[in-house]
Amino acid sequence: MNPERETKSVSTETTFDSDIADYRTLEQELYRLTRKLSDRLKAADLAGRTVTLKLKTADFRLITRARSLEDPTRLAHRIFDHARELLAREADGRRFRLIGVGVSELADPALADPADLIDTSATKRGLAELATDSLRARFGKTIIDRGIALDAPKRREPEQPHRNRPDDAIATDAPTSRSLPSAAPRRK
């Protein structure tokens, strides 16, 4: 085994305590994993062109589905959107014991997520994600999130200690945070 070899893919997965058939629960877990994957890609300064969904059924059959993207990405919302489409095709009432998501065909992050001249909202979502990454780095991973994470079952993961972390954290579909201190009222 050579620890110096080149990284070919980055992925993350989880095995459930009990098998799950509910699409919403699977979707929420996929979002959590996608967020974790995106954080790992950004930390390693990597991006990937192929998104892969991994599922294991209750009878231990392994299902993998992949989609190649036009441009490499490391943004959670792009990875999630493609992985969720793959999940929607497979979540047909079967029970799953494992779900995972990964990216391969790794590329230079400078080539990742180029500005889209036709769909400017994609560029705005990318910039919003980078802004929320900054907030999460400063105030903790639970300070801000998308709406899909609001009613998701909480999983135990060690939280990194952060300075100046507010006690209350919220999750929203839009990149805003009401738990940050508000400005003092102005005097006239």
UniProtKB/TrEMBL annotation:
Residues 149-188 are annotated as: Disordered. InterPro entries: DNA_pol_Y-fam_lit_finger_sf (IPR036775), DNA_pol_Y-fam_little_finger (IPR017961), DNA_polymerase-Y (IPR050116). Residues 8-108 form the DNA polymerase Y-family little finger domain. Pfam families: IMS_C. Gene3D superfamilies: DNA polymerase, Y-family, little finger domain. Residues 152-168 have a biased composition (Basic and acidic residues). This is DNA polymerase Y-family little finger domain-containing protein. It comes from Ancylobacter polymorphus.
